[in-house]
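hiii so um. not sure if this is the right channel but i have a protein structure encoded as tokens and i wanna go backwards to a sequence. like what aa goes where. can anyone help
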């Protein structure tokens, strides 16, 4: 098993004035499952392809297990890759697809059979080894691709949106299987996706990319609960984090301070006193907001715009002083467009962002 170090990687494609990756650095620990998450065009696949050797960086360094592989060809890096498409050979049986890399390395036939059987057992493919890919479902073909990648004893496993071609239910079940598999074999893994659910459920850490730069890299729960910027908060979550523009009140007595939202007072950290009188962005997740038809202490008045039943919960879009936010409530809650409701925010659930930079403010 192996650690990976990416150092100041720069890549600009011909004909483009924008860097696909802009001095990106990232450390992946031995045996870690790292997920690169971001919108299309943010540079995550480019970063993966540079690690694989399919693209060469304009500048920077790639170190795998203490070995500089920046300009080595893919075959000399001892990495394996699972692509977005299944990329299995239709004219070869499952057994031969899984063992293809081993055969290319000249491994003994009996050893190939042993390792193929091991990988097929892990991926629940034992009953399909003598079938052709056209006789398999999409999920089974993707299992073949994963088995082929893990059987070669590579130092690092690379995955480029491997579940995107599967339907929603199959993707959900395969995701849990994949996480269990990677934990069992303990291989260092870099996984690329634009699906936040995949990222949060699979990764030991999640690196969020935007416009060629990693803007936050942390534990999945930390990325979700404490986004480093409005971009991260707005990209992750379904629904994404709500943001309200508020004014910091400079006339509050006591150790704390407060934010003013159209006459409504919301408790704010004392550290924001230095911003008194100025606007800040308040971030809050939909599921942390309490909604009621009855006003309470420090409750904020809102008007219902849209009511959406989701089965296990309801999603209520409300207007607060001309700003729309979403509230996730229990499925027993009922409201109709035009109703007046009252919202309560717990101070511990609020996140604060600079109005100019959109970066998280230090509040502790």
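sure thing!! here u go:
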């Amino acid at each position: 098993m192996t650690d990976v170090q990416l150092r100041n990687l720069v890549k600009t494609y011909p004909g483009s004035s924008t860097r696909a990756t802009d001095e990106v650095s990232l450390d992946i620990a031995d045996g870690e499952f790292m997920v690169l998450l971001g919108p299309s065009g943010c540079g995550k696949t480019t970063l993966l392809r540079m690690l694989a050797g399919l693209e060469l960086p304009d500048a920077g360094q790639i170190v795998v297990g203490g070995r500089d592989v920046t300009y080595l060809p893919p075959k000399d890096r001892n990495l394996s890759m699972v692509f977005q498409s299944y990329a299995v050979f239709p004219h070869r049986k499952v057994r031969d697809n899984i063992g293809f890399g081993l055969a290319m390395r000249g491994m003994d036939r009996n050893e190939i059979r042993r390792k193929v059987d091991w990988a097929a057992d892990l991926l629940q493919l034992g009953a399909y080894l003598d079938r052709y890919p056209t006789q398999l479902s999409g999920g089974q073909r993707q299992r073949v691709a994963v088995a082929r990648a893990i059987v070669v004893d590579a130092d690092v496993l690379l995955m480029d949106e491997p579940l995107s071609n599967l339907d929603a239910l199959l993707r959900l079940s395969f995701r849990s299987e994949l996480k269990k598999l990677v934990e069992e074999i303990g291989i260092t893994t870099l996984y690329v996706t634009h699906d936040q659910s995949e990222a949060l459920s699979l990764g030991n850490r999640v690196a969020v990319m935007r416009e060629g730069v990693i803007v936050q890299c942390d534990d999945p729960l930390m990325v979700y609960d404490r986004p480093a910027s409005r971009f991260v908060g707005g990209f992750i979550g379904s629904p994404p984090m709500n943001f309200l523009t508020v004014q910091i009140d400079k006339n509050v007595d006591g150790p704390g301070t407060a934010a003013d939202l159209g006459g409504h007072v919301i408790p704010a950290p004392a550290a924001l006193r230095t911003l008194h009188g100025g606007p800040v962005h308040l971030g809050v997740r939909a599921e942390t907001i309490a909604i009621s038809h009855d006003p309470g202490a420090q409750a904020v008045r809102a008007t219902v715009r849209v009511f959406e039943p989701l089965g296990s919960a309801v999603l209520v879009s409300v207007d607060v002083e001309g700003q729309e936010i979403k509230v996730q409530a229990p499925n027993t809650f009922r409201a109709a467009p035009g109703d007046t409701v009252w919202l309560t925010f717990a101070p511990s659930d609020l996140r604060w962002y600079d109005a100019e930079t959109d970066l998280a403010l230090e509040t502790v």
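oh and Residues 4-228 form a domain with the Rossmann fold fold (CATH 3.40.50.300).
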